[in-house]
């Protein structure tokens, strides 16, 4: 996603005040060099090793499938400057969204639903603290628990705060929570919320997922963090060390536009969302800057890969920046989609194999029109422009009564209409606010106990939302 990062970070730097009691989370930084230095954590144990440089054999790329494919191969076993403290923050101004290109609606695709309604959970008012003009201090458990609003019958608890800015969270086969942080490490968090270093050496890891039935942790991050010509990758962590299994994936138009969310499908294969290399499909540099670029075969797509990384297939295309993906209880894949920076509504895509979902064809003064024969899958839900949908999970537990197979999604940015978790109920025509009051929620997952866990990137806090009835 661009995640509107250049603008949103300025907003977030202002809303999350910094003092001696408040530790600011660093902003992602594009390194303008041919190869980015690997960020080394300060506390790795002797057994942890960094991911090797890009050296994997290029994956075999197969044609775009037309139906959900069956497995064809047996599975084998930066630090940036800190934000300046502020005492008064102007509110961001939301820009009007141009009209989007009308997609071609087909019988097997729903039309887009309207933006989420407020439901019964409102955004709490801002309140100053010793650390910020808007928020409690990062370590103020009581303050944050009082701020987060959830529906009646639910409670939100301050669960953990790993250092470094969480970008992705998931539960492991041991029942513990794992959190990737922007500074390059992955932490394992026990049931009491204590975070311990697990493995490190990554460059802005943004996707983590365990292969079902194993202890193998798959991680997406960057091999070359250059703005133009960058490269992302997927690695596997086994026995406390990581090794790359897939390299050469497109990267890095802007921060967090790369190989991002990972999820294993019902077929036992891995799936990963890969962002586009530009805002709306344009060439970024040189004499032809602004003209339409030729699409990289793997950009703005959902890829399907064998667990050993030997086979990589394009599952669906045209998703501009799918920061996260999730399978629901019906075997349907969903992806968040951050839309172009000129301001159309953000989207949630119901991913259909072999289909086009819109990128790079939009309607604006500098955008490109689709070919006459393009059959574009319309989004299933749309959200406030610039709200930056990021993490997504399907609720397949039974603690929340009546919530089975609902989708929970985080809206990451500091623009009005974001900073919250929304719920999409099965069959609903609109989304509703489920949890509000966050600074910058970036990912969400469901624990073995059926509670919902929400990671806030700006504060570093991971919240646990439970039903108390």
Low-pLDDT runs of 5+ residues are 5-49, 53-118
Global Rg: 20 Å
Mean pLDDT: 81
SS element count, helices: 2
Q: How many beta-strand segments? A: 25
Percentage of β-strand residues? 25-35%
CATH class category name: Mainly Beta
The CATH architecture is 6 Propeller
**How many domains in all?**
1
SSE string, helices as H and strands as E: HEHEEEEEEEEEEEEEEEEEEEEEEEE
**Could you say which overall geometry the principal axes of the C-alpha atoms support?**
globular
Structural class: mainly beta
Q: Which descriptors apply to this entry?
A:
25 strands; about 475 residues; 5-stranded mixed sheet; Neuraminidase
Structure, briefly:
Helix content is 4%, strand content 30%.
Outline the secondary-structure elements.
Layout: H1 5-15, E1 60-62, H2 141-147, E2 154-160, E3 166-171, E4 177-181, E5 186-189, E6 195-199, E7 207-210, E8 217-224, E9 230-238, E10 241-251, E11 259-264, E12 270-274, E13 301-305, E14 311-317, E15 325-327, E16 333-337, E17 346-351, E18 381-383, E19 389-394, E20 407-411, E21 420-424, E22 432-436, E23 441-446, E24 452-456, E25 462-467
Parallel strand pairs: 1-14
Antiparallel strand pairs: 2-25, 3-4, 4-5, 5-6, 7-8, 8-9, 9-10, 11-12, 12-13, 13-14, 15-16, 16-17, 17-18, 19-20, 20-21, 21-22, 23-24, 24-25
């Amino acid at each position: 996603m661009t995640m509107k990062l250049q603008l949103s970070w300025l907003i977030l730097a202002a809303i999350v005040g910094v003092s001696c009691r408040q530790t600011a989370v660093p902003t992602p930084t594009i390194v303008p060099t041919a190869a980015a230095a690997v960020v080394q954590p300060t506390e790795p144990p002797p057994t942890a090793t960094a991911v090797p440089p890009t050296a994997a054999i290029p994956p075999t790329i197969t044609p775009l499938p037309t139906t959900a494919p069956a497995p064809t191969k047996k599975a084998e076993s930066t630090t940036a400057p800190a934000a300046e403290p502020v005492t008064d923050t102007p509110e961001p101004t939301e820009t009007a969204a141009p009209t989007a290109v009308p997609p071609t609606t087909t019988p097997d695709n729903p039309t887009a639903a309207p933006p989420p309604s407020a439901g019964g959970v409102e955004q709490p008012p801002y309140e100053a603290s010793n650390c910020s003009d808007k928020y409690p201090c990062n370590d103020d458990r009581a303050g944050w628990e009082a701020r987060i609003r959830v529906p009646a019958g639910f409670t939100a608890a301050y669960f953990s705060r790993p250092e470094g800015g969480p970008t992705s969270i998931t539960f492991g086969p041991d029942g513990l929570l794992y959190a990737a942080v922007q500074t390059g490490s992955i932490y394992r968090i026990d049931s009491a919320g204590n975070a311990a270093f697990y493995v490190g050496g990554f460059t802005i890891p943004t996707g983590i997922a365990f292969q079902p039935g194993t202890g193998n942790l798959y991680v997406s991050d960057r091999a070359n963090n250059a703005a133009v010509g960058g490269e992302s990758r997927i690695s596997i962590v086994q026995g406390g060390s990581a090794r790359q299994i897939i390299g050469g994936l497109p990267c890095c138009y802007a921060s967090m536009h790369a190989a991002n969310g990972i999820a294993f499908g019902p077929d036992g294969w891995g799936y990963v969302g890969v962002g586009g290399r530009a805002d709306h499909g344009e060439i970024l540099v040189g004499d032809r800057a602004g003209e339409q670029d030729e699409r990289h075969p793997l950009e703005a797509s959902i890829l399907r890969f064998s667990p050993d990384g030997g086979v990589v297939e394009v599952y669906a295309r045209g998703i501009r920046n799918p920061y996260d993906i999730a399978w629901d209880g019906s075997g349907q894949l969903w992806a968040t989609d951050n839309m172009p920076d000129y301001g159309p509504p953000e989207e949630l895509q119901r991913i259909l194999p072999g289909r086009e979902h819109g990128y790079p064809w939009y309607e604006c003064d500098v955008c490109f029109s689709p070919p006459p024969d393009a059959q574009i899958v319309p989004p299933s839900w749309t959200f406030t422009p610039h709200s930056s949908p990021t993490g997504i999970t399907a609720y397949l537990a039974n603690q929340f009564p009546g919530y089975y197979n609902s989708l929970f999604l985080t809206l990451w940015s500091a623009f009005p209409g974001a900073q919250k978790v929304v719920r999409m109920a099965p069959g609903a025509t609109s989304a509703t606010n489920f949890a509000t009051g966050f600074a910058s929620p970036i990912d969400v997952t469901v624990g073995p106990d059926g509670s919902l866990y929400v990671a806030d990137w700006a504060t570093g806090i991971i919240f646990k939302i439970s039903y108390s009835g």
